[in-house]
Structures are given as C-alpha cells and as structure tokens.
User: Which sequence fits this backbone?
C-alpha cells in the first residue's frame, strides 16, 4: 500500500468510527407533542424511541446547524468543568415526522430539519430560576457559572432572561448557542468584545469579587484529547454543512485547534474581568435598541419566524 493510499485508508477508517459512534448515540424522534414558542429556534417537545421526552432545537430554524454545533461544544465543555449544564443528545427527525405537526410553519421547519438535530432532556416539573432561589446557591457555583459564561462570551444569560431552571432543587443552565467564543472557533464572525461584555455585566451572578485563577487552572487542565473527542462526536452532516475546511477531517482539526488554543489562554479571561469593572452597563433603552437591531439583522438573514 503506497503512502497516499494509507493516508486515505486511515482517514476513511476514522470517519467510519465517527459515524458508528454517532449512530449508536442517535435517538429517533417518533412522537410530536407541541412547539415551545420561544427563541429563534422554535424548539419542539418530542418523544424519542428510547421512551423519553426531549426538547429539540431544529436545524431548519435560526442559525441552524451552527447554533447546534456551538451549543454541543459549549455544553460538553461545561460538563467537563462541572457546570450544571443539561447535556445534549442527538435526535434524528425523518421526512415523515412533519406529518404529525398541525401548524404549517412547523411542518416547513421540520421538512428543512430532516436529519440529526440537537435535543436535551425535558424536565416537566422544572421552574424558572428566580432571585429567591439564588440565596440557596453556593457562592462558588455562582462564580463558576459566571466565569464560564465570560470565557464563552455567552450573551444569553442576563438578569432579565436567565436561561436557568430549577428541577428537584437542582439548578440547570440552558442555551449556549450564542457563545461567541465558540462561534469564532468555527466561523470568522466579527464582534466587538466590549459591547458583548456590557451584556455580561447584566449576568445574574456578576460580581467584581470573583476569583478566576481556580477556573483558569481547571480550564487549562482539560486534556486536549477531551476537546478532540467533543469535536469528533459532532455529526458528519453538521461538520460538512459548516464548510470550515476543505474536507471533514480538516474542519475537525481546525475547530479542535482553535478550541485548544482558547482554553490555554487564561489571560483573555482575566482581561475581560478587568474590563468589566470599568464598563458601564447598558441602560434599558440601549438594551432595547440593541435587541431591535439584532432582530432586524436576524430577520434580514433568516426571515421572520
């Protein structure tokens, strides 16, 4: 076997391993319950062939596959850092599933979302996080959640919209699809960091007294192999859709390398915390104006939901 053939053989064998691993972990959606009318992704409540119920974000809505990849990576990183994140699963939607939806808009989105989508376990008795519950939380846990969001540049957790729930007395963090640090590891999407940090100053656990060094140490100690495994577990169809590299293997290498680089540079997190101390938080009018501008940009790109 010549060298080029050997390289092709190894790459093909690795890809087959990816596919087999994903196939064994994919849950088949077999029952449609209803839409959850919130956010840009129009999540659905569906039953899986394993007997469990899941909240599924459709790849046919909003940022689609990109949002799914970002949330998958961020959630898996959160698990490694012992952040209370609902761990995502792969949920397959086939072409016939759209027939169960009564709403025409939902049927269209389902038809555009055939294949593997992102899901999380449905917790039926969960309640939204409230400031009253915060009094029962360990200060260290609140610090870790905040530092993780600063590391991710996750703009989707504010004192108005916490994206946290409480279930059986345990706090769970949700929705990491807007984590700009992960998005920038996948696509070259420009953003103004000081504007993003203004949003993070509205974080429910923001404080100037947070000590970042333990978190930075934990972040650096995540094995590079664990980062690689997270990226390798992303479905092939998602990676191909993003077109990060010339082929699937190059795309995975590129994303992995950027994520490893980010976790090793704790100085970026320290600089963000220093900048947060001097930035002025947005006024309600500024936040509303920014939200309107973001919505218009979203609708221009993806259309109205």
Assistant:
């Amino acid at each position: 076997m010549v060298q080029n053939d050997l390289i092709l053989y190894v790459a093909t064998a690795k890809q087959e391993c990816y596919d087999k691993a994903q196939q064994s972990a994919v849950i088949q959606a077999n029952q449609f319950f209803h839409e959850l009318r919130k956010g840009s992704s129009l999540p659905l409540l569906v039953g899986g062939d394993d007997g469990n119920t899941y909240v599924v974000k459709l790849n046919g809505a909003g940022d689609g596959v990109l949002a799914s990849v970002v949330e998958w990576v961020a959630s898996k990183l959160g698990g490694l850092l012992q952040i209370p994140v609902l761990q995502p699963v792969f949920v397959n939607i086939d072409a016939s599933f759209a027939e169960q939806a009564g709403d025409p808009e939902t049927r269209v989105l389902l038809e555009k979302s055939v294949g593997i989508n992102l899901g999380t376990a449905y917790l039926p008795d969960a309640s939204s996080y409230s400031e009253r519950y915060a009094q029962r939380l360990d200060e260290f846990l609140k610090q870790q959640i905040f530092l993780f969001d600063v590391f991710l540049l996750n703009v989707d957790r504010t004192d108005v919209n916490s994206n946290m729930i409480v279930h059986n007395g345990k706090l769970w963090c949700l929705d990491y699809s807007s984590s700009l640090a992960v998005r920038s590891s996948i696509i070259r999407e420009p953003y103004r960091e000081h504007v993003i940090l203004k949003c993070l100053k509205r974080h429910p656990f923001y404080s100037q007294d947070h000590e970042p060094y333990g978190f930075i140490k934990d972040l650096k100690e995540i094995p590079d192999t664990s980062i690689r495994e997270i990226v390798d577990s992303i479905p092939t169809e998602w990676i191909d859709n993003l077109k990060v590299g010339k082929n699937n293997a190059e795309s995975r290498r590129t994303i992995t390398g950027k994520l490893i680089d980010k976790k090793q540079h704790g100085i970026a997190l320290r600089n963000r915390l220093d900048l947060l101390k001097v930035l002025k938080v947005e006024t309600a009018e500024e936040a509303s104006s920014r939200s309107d501008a973001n919505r218009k940009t979203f609708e221009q790109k993806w259309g109205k939901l």
Observations:
- Residues 4 and 10 are 10 Å apart (CA to CA).
- Residues 1-24 have pLDDT under 50 and may be disordered.
- The beta strands are 26-35, 44-48, 53-57, 89-93, 115-121, 127-128, 164-167, 170-173.
